[in-house]
Write a structure and sequence with these properties.
6 helices, 128 residues, mainly alpha
């Protein structure tokens, strides 16, 4: 709205400018300026800056969402990963998980499999 001396408020001017810009530019324009802004930001800030804003964002998200939100996004992420990766991917990450836990087989020979073997078998099973 205009104030008493016929000038636009900053809010109205910004809204009108944004609408005009949106009419005159396409998706690629916004991608390009977003990329340039990201590059400029990365040149001006260090790792700690990104850790801090990431932590603040995570805290804000956790304050605004419940357990069901996280279950839903986890399910969607799992489905997207499953759709984009084949059986070999799951075998490989299962094997890596087993290796990361250590190649420890029980010396008492009580029939237990090593963690590596369990990870490999779990990876094979998940994509059958």
């Amino acid at each position: 709205m205009a104030n008493n001396n016929e000038k636009m408020s900053r809010e109205e001017a910004g809204r009108k400018g944004g609408e005009t810009t949106a009419k005159n530019h396409d998706k690629e324009f916004y991608q390009e300026i977003g990329q340039k802004g990201g590059e400029a930001t990365s040149e001006n800030h260090d790792k700690e800056f990104y850790q801090e804003i990431g932590q603040k964002g995570g805290e804000a998200t956790s304050e605004n969402h419940d357990k069901e939100f996280y279950q839903e996004i986890g399910k969607k992420g799992g489905e997207a990963t499953s759709d984009s990766h084949g059986k070999e991917f799951y075998q490989e990450i299962g094997e890596k998980g087993g290796e990361a836990r250590g190649n420890q087989r029980d010396d008492s020979d009580d029939g237990k499999m090593s963690r590596e073997e369990a990870g490999r078998k779990g990876g094979e099973k998940s994509r059958r």
